[in-house]
């Protein structure tokens, strides 16, 4: 089923989660162990992120540079199929511009069709560490909106491969990213929302937000979207803080603010166990307020840590 159908049919706020593919060489069983307890809360869909391979260049003794892979998380499509099969739940693979030519994207989307996966989250992807700024492939997409256009073309039965012109149209439900605190490259929120609106006009079906810790930012974002006639569902993304360090790391990586009250609480924490407790309590408080506001779904960035999400969900669902 499509994410939007789940949202339309829901009688109460839904619980969903986003997981990362395991590092290359790790067993998928670790991922299942992560998901198993969370199935108690009946997520109608699970997102699986996509990560480009990261490299460093090391100088060999002979002076030549050697390209060395430092992080690999392959397998988004395969993992989506495995989760769908094991738990009978819909999966949402993240599809990114970075690292893909248009043809490779078309092939990945065809694979998803074969696997009966009809939801995708269409995003640009970030720059990898060795790039200063995001770089697309020579025959790839520069912005998420260009990738979205390709998915929409396939939904209309138009493929890049001319031999496929009589093939069946795809039927993807398309999610896109939204930033209550604006995307860090956008000069202002209005600029950012302009492209968000264009994506919705082009056919995006729903929005999932970047993590935020101050609900007011989400409420203001939804208000501005509605004023601009962006009327698709806006699913809030929530990340429970799990370590003391995250109070500085998350704002710097994700370009978001932490409310003073939360930073003060985290500063008092002597260890990560204390920070985790603060993170759980904050997320429960945030979630309750969001549920009262009437959000269709609470989407949790579990980032390899199921236990805090379990504890939060246990309080809410
Ligand atoms: P875009 O929509 O392309 O926007 C990027 C910037 O360019 C914005 O500032 C926007 O205002 C501007 N812009 C947009 N279109 C145009 C245009 N046509 N001309 C000029 N400017 C334009 N990253 C991953 O690598 N893998 C993941 O799995 C992943 N999952 C994510 C899930 C969610 C819910 C979110 C919120 C983010 C996720 N990201 C992921 C991170 C995401 O890839 C980055 O935030 C990326 O920098 C921007 O992606 P986007 O789709 O918003 O980009």
TrEMBL record:
UniProt record similarity statement: Belongs to the methylenetetrahydrofolate reductase family.
Native organism: Splendidivirga corallicola
Keywords of the record: Amino-acid biosynthesis, FAD, Flavoprotein, Methionine biosynthesis, NAD, Oxidoreductase
Biological or metabolic pathway of the protein: One-carbon metabolism; tetrahydrofolate interconversion; Amino-acid biosynthesis; L-methionine biosynthesis via de novo pathway
EC number: 1.5.1.54
Name of the gene encoding the protein in the UniProt record: metF
SUPFAM superfamilies, per the entry: FAD-linked oxidoreductase
InterPro entries assigned: FAD-linked_oxidoreductase-like (IPR029041), Mehydrof_redctse-like (IPR003171), MTHF_reductase_bac (IPR004620)
Name of one Pfam family that matches: MTHFR
Catalysed reactions, as listed in the record: (6S)-5-methyl-5,6,7,8-tetrahydrofolate + NAD(+) = (6R)-5,10-methylene-5,6,7,8-tetrahydrofolate + NADH + H(+)
GO MF, one annotated term: methylenetetrahydrofolate reductase [NAD(P)H] activity
Enzyme class label: oxidoreductase
Cofactor: FAD
Protein name: Methylenetetrahydrofolate reductase
